[in-house]
Amino acid sequence: MNEVSDHLDYGLTLVFIGFNPSLRSGEVGHHYANPRNNFWRILHKSGLTPRLYEASEDGELLKLGYGFTNIVARPTRGAEDITREEYRLGRETLREKLAEYRPEVACFVGKGVYTEFSGSSRVDWGLQPNSVVDGIHEFVAPSSSGLVRMPMDEIIGIYRQLNDYISKEEF
């Protein structure tokens, strides 16, 4: 299965970071392509995007100042299929990417993604008080997976906080 290419560039406002691509994303080569994943609907309903985008348009979000990457590049059925070694290598690679591209905000799509990256055992939603990569604001948002049990309005509300933060900040 092919890896899904990152969409990264210099000068981005926001980079979304997931665990790893789904099998569907690996098949089609686009981020958040599983039809049961709510990512694109959440972005639109929270005001982060001006319209509802399709997964096939993920590269277009670079024009909005948004990029995409994952802590692990290999597509799997679920995060439970990621090995400890893949996480170890992924953490190093992700730190290097963030240090190189220096987005204003790194948004971790799921608490588990952030705990794997940061080594913190407990994190809250929203802006994190201490950054792993100096100078980059780190924001933890709920996973957009259809398996998440949190009410959709609550998820959208947390992403709306992200939208409010990046809209008000003078980076």
Automatic annotation (TrEMBL):
Task: Identify the InterPro entries for this entry.
Answer: MUG/TDG (IPR015637), Uracil-DNA_glycosylase-like (IPR005122), Uracil-DNA_glycosylase-like_sf (IPR036895)
Source organism superkingdom: Bacteria
What are this entry's molecular-function GO terms?
A: pyrimidine-specific mismatch base pair DNA N-glycosylase activity; uracil DNA N-glycosylase activity
Q: Does the keyword Metal-binding apply?
A: no
Residue span(s) of domain Uracil-DNA glycosylase-like: 9-151
Which keywords does UniProt give here?
A: DNA damage, DNA repair, Hydrolase
Q: Which GO terms describe its biological process?
A: base-excision repair, AP site formation
Q: Does the keyword Nucleus apply?
A: no
Fetch the PANTHER family from UniProt.
G/T AND G/U MISMATCH-SPECIFIC DNA GLYCOSYLASE (PTHR12159), G_T MISMATCH-SPECIFIC THYMINE DNA GLYCOSYLASE (PTHR12159:SF9)
Q: This protein is called what?
A: Mismatch-specific DNA-glycosylase
- Species of provenance: Paenibacillus glucanolyticus
